[in-house]
Design brief:
single chain; 675 residues; alpha/beta; Rossmann fold; Urocanase fold; 3 domains; nine-stranded mixed β-sheet; six-stranded parallel β-sheet; 22 helices; 19 strands; Urocanase_sf
Length: 675
C-alpha cells in the first residue's frame, strides 16, 4: 500500500532470513559488482556507517549481513529493506500521504526515478549511466519518504548525497528540499576517491537528473537528440533532406536509449550497438527501437535496403560497437553519413563500456575478478574504436563526441584523438552543433502531470504548441540572422510538440520535454498554471529540466565546450544557478559533482518547481525561469559568443530590471605583435 511510505522501516523487514534478504530478483537488471579498494578498517567503517540508521538492538542481525553484502556486491544496498508491498512507480499526487503538496510532488519524482520501467538498476537505486544514484541504500529511501510525509510548508529537507540530513525550519518561500551529490573537496575528486566514498556510504554520483529526482525516462533526452541529428545533417551534409541519411552510434541505456527513437523522429536511419541484450530488448519492447539484429552482415544489408528506400528506421545491433565500426570500415561501399557514441564512458571501468573480443558475460566476470585486466582490455578496445572511426571519417563520415567522455577516455587509453595538444580532432556536439542553440537560450524544459492522466498531458501539449506559435509570429518579421536562427528552433520545436504524442514517448510518469528559451518557458509555465487554476488540468504540474542546459552545467568537454575565453573549467555558473533558483521560488534545488562526463569532470545544478494553479506559483515560475535561463546566456555572452550577446541584449529590452555586463570587442590585430 502506498500509505506505507509514511511508516518507514517496520518490523516486517527484520523477519527475513539473510538468504531471503540478499536474494537477487532476476526479473530486473542488476548493477555489476563494484570493486572498491577498501582496507579492513574501511570495510568496518562502511558497516559502522550503515548501522547508524538502525537501533542498537538490530545491529547484531544487520552487521554480518551488511559485511556479506559489501563482500558480495561491493556496496551495502540494504536489499533487506527494498519495498515489496507496493509497486515502485509514480502514483497520482493525491495518493501520497503528505501534508504538503510540494513534498508529495517530490515523493512522486523519487518513485518515478526508481520505477523498473524507468531505472537502469532499480534495486541498486541507480537510475541511469551505470552509477547515477538516487540513494546510497534503501534505508535512505525510507527515511526520506517518511520525512517528506511529515513535512510542512515551513520546513526544508536537507539531502547530503542520498543521506536525509533532516527537516529544518524555513519558510513558505524557501525550497522544500536542498539536494547535493558528490560535493567533495576538489583535490579528492578522483575516481578512486569516488569508489571509496560511495562504498563507505559517504557520497554518491547523482549523475544529472538521477540524484535530483528529475529523470523522466529516455524521453528526457529524445528531443535534444532529435534536434542534434537534424542540425548535424544541416551543418555537416549541407541539406535539410533527412531521408536516407545513416547515423551510427552506441548505447541503449537510460539516456542513450533515446537515440533510435530520435533518429526515426528526425527521419534518418539510426543504427545503435548495445552489448547488453536486456537493455536492447527493453528498448525494443518499449517501442523505442524498431528492429534488432545480432548478425553484422544482416545489419549491413538492412542499412543498404533502408538507405535505398529512404525509410526512417532504427536498427539495434546486439554486439560491441567496435565490431560494428570495423565491419562498416571494411565494406567497399561507404554507407555512413554521421557517427557518434553514447556509451557511459564517464564510468569506463565499472560497466559503462565493455571490451570487444569477449562476450558480455565474460567481460562482466573479468571486471569483477580482475579489474586491472578489465581496464587494459577496455583501453585496447577504445584504441580500436578510434582507429575504425578514423577510417570511416577519411571516407566522408562526420563524427562528433556526444559529451560522454568518449574522446577523453580514448585519449587516456593512448588513442590518437588530438588535432593539436589539448584540442580533440572530433568536436563535442555542444561545441559544434548545439552550442549556439544553448547560447540563444534554447534548452530541455520539462513538465510532469502529477495527476497521472494522459489527457492532462495532451492538454499541456496544446498549450505549449500555442505559445510557440505566438513566438513564431512575433519573430517572423525580423531578418536579423540571429533571429532567423531562433525562428528555425521555433519551427523545429513546433513540429516536435505537434507530433510528440504520436511517437508514444511516455515511459513512467506523464511527462513531456520541449526545447524552449526563457520567453517560451515562462509563457508555457504561466499558461499551464492558469489552466490548473481553472480546473482544465486535473492536478498540479511539476516543472523541471535536464541539468544539461543553458545554465545548468559547467563541463569543459560538453556544456561549456564552446566557451572560448579560458573559463570553461570554472563552475561559477552552475553553482550560482542553483543558489539563484533557491530564492526565486524553486520547490527543490540540487547541485552535483559530475554529470554525464564523469565525477570530477563537471558541476551541474537542477530544480523542481510545482505549479498548483495559485497566483503565488505563477509568480515563482516567472521569476525563477527568467533567471534559470538568462544566467547562462549572460555567461556565454561574456565569453564572446555572438548569439548569446544578441540574446541577452534582447532580454534586457524585455526586462528593465536586468542589467548585464557586456563584453567589448578586441581587435586581433592589436594583439598580434604583443608577444
Amino acid at each position: 500500500m502506498i500509505s506505507e511510505l509514511a511508516l518507514g522501516i517496520t518490523d516486517k523487514y527484520y523477519a527475513l532470513s539473510t538468504a531471503e534478504a540478499l536474494a537477487i530478483d532476476p526479473s530486473v537488471p542488476h548493477a555489476p559488482k563494484r570493486t572498491p579498494a577498501l582496507t579492513d578498517a574501511e570495510r568496518k567503517q562502511a558497516v559502522r556507517n550503515a548501522l547508524r540508521y538502525f537501533p542498537a538492538e538490530r545491529h547484531a542481525l544487520l552487521a554480518k549481513e551488511f559485511a556479506l553484502e559489501l563482500a558480495t556486491f561491493g556496496h551495502i544496498y540494504m536489499y533487506r529493506f527494498r519495498p515489496t508491498s507496493y509497486e515502485m512507480k509514480a502514483y497520482p499526487i493525491t495518493s501520497y500521504p503528505a501534508k504538503c503538496v510540494q513534498a508529495a510532488g517530490i515523493m512522486l519524482q523519487i518513485q518515478n526515478n526508481l520505477d523498473k520501467s524507468v531505472a537502469q538498476f532499480p534495486h541498486e537505486l541507480i537510475t541511469y549511466g551505470g552509477n547515477g544514484s538516487v540513494f546510497n541504500n534503501w534505508a535512505q529511501y525510507h527515511l526520506t519518504m517518511k520525512y517528506l510525509s511529515q513535512m510542512s510548508d515551513e520546513q526544508t529537507l536537507v539531502m547530503y548525497s542520498g543521506h536525509p540530513h533532516g527537516l529544518f525550519p524555513s519558510n513558505k518561500d524557501a525550497p522544500r528540499a536542498i539536494v547535493t551529490n558528490g560535493m567533495v573537496i576538489p583535490n579528492y575528486s578522483s575516481r578512486a576517491d569516488y569508489d571509496k566514498m560511495y562504498a563507505l556510504g559517504n557520497s554518491q554520483y547523482g549523475q544529472m537528473t538521477a540524484g535530483s529526482y528529475c529523470y523522466i525516462g529516455p524521453q528526457g533526452i529524445v528531443h535534444g537528440t532529435t534536434i542534434t541529428v537534424m542540425n548535424a545533417v544541416r551543418k555537416y551534409l549541407e541539406t535539410d533532406e533527412m531521408a536516407g541519411k545513416v547515423f551510427v552510434t552506441a548505447g541503449l541505456g537510460g539516456m542513450s536509449g533515446a537515440q533510435p527513437k530520435a533518429g526515426v523522429i528526425a527521419g534518418v536511419i539510426c543504427v545503435v550497438a548495445e552489448v547488453d541484450e536486456s537493455a536492447l530488448n527493453k528498448r525494443f519492447n518499449q517501442g523505442w527501437l524498431l528492429e534488432k539484429e545480432s548478425n553484422l552482415d544482416k545489419v549491413v544489408a538492412r542499412i543498404k535496403e533502408a538507405k535505398k528506400a529512404k525509410i526512417a528506421t532504427s536498427i539495434g545491433y546486439h554486439g560491441n560497437i567496435v565490431d560494428l565500426w570495423e565491419r562498416l570500415a571494411e565494406e567497399p561501399e561507404h554507407l555512413i553519413d554521421l557517427g557518434s557514441d553514447q556509451t557511459s564512458l564517464h564510468n569506463p571501468f565499472g560497466g559503462g563500456y565493455y571490451p570487444a573480443s569477449m562476450s558480455f558475460e565474460d567481460a562482466k566476470s573479468l571486471m569483477e575478478s580482475d579489474p586491472a585486466a578489465f581496464k587494459i582490455a577496455v583501453q585496447k578496445t577504445l584504441i580500436r574504436h578510434i582507429t575504425a572511426v578514423d577510417k570511416l571519417t577519411a571516407r566522408g563520415m562526420r563524427f562528433w563526441d556526444y559529451g560522454n567522455a568518449f574522446l577523453l577516455e580514448a585519449g587516456r587509453a593512448g588513442a590518437q584523438v588530438f588535432a593539436e595538444p589539448g584540442v580533440f580532432k572530433y568536436p563535442s556536439y555542444v561545441q559544434d552543433i548545439m552550442g549556439d542553440i544553448f547560447s540563444l537560450g534554447f534548452g530541455p524544459f520539462r513538465w510532469i502531470c502529477t495527476s497521472g492522466e494522459h489527457e492532462d498531458l495532451l492538454k499541456t501539449d496544446i498549450i505549449a504548441k500555442r505559445v510557440i506559435e505566438d513566438l513564431m509570429a512575433e519573430n517572423s518579421v525580423s531578418t536579423d540572422p540571429f533571429d532567423l536562427k531562433s525562428q528555425q528552433q521555433y519551427q523545429d520545436n513546433h513540429l516536435w510538440i505537434s507530433k510528440c504524442d504520436d511517437h508514444k514517448l511516455v515511459v513512467g510518469s506523464e511527462a513531456r520535454i520541449l526545447y524552449c528559451n526563457a520567453e517560451g518557458r515562462s509563457r508555457i509555465a504561466v499558461q499551464l498554471n492558469e489552466a490548473i487554476g481553472r480546473g482544465d488540468i486535473k492536478g498540479p504540474i511539476m516543472l523541471s529540466r535536464d541539468h544539461h542546459d543553458v545554465s545548468g552545467t559547467d563541463s569543459p568537454w560538453r556544456e561549456t565546450s564552446n566557451i572560448t575565453d579560458g573559463s570553461q573549467f570554472c563552475a561559477d555558473m552552475a553553482v550560482h544557478n542553483a543558489i539563484g533558483d533557491s530564492f526565486r521560488g524553486a520547490t527543490s534545488v540540487s547541485l552535483h559533482n559530475g554529470g554525464g562526463t564523469g565525477w570530477g569532470e563537471a558541476m551541474n545544478g537542477g530544480f523542481l518547481l510545482l505549479l498548483d494553479g495559485s497566483a503565488d506559483a505563477g509568480r515563482r515560475a516567472k521569476s525563477m525561469l527568467h533567471w534559470d535561463v538568462n544566467n547562462g546566456v549572460a555567461r556565454r555572452s561574456w565569453s564572446g559568443n555572438a548569439y548569446a550577446k544578441h540574446q541577452i541584449q534582447h532580454a534586457q529590452k524585455i526586462e528593465p530590471k536586468l542589467t548585464v555586463t557586456l563584453p567589448q570587442a578586441v581587435s586581433e590585430d592589436l594583439l598580434a605583435d604583443l608577444f
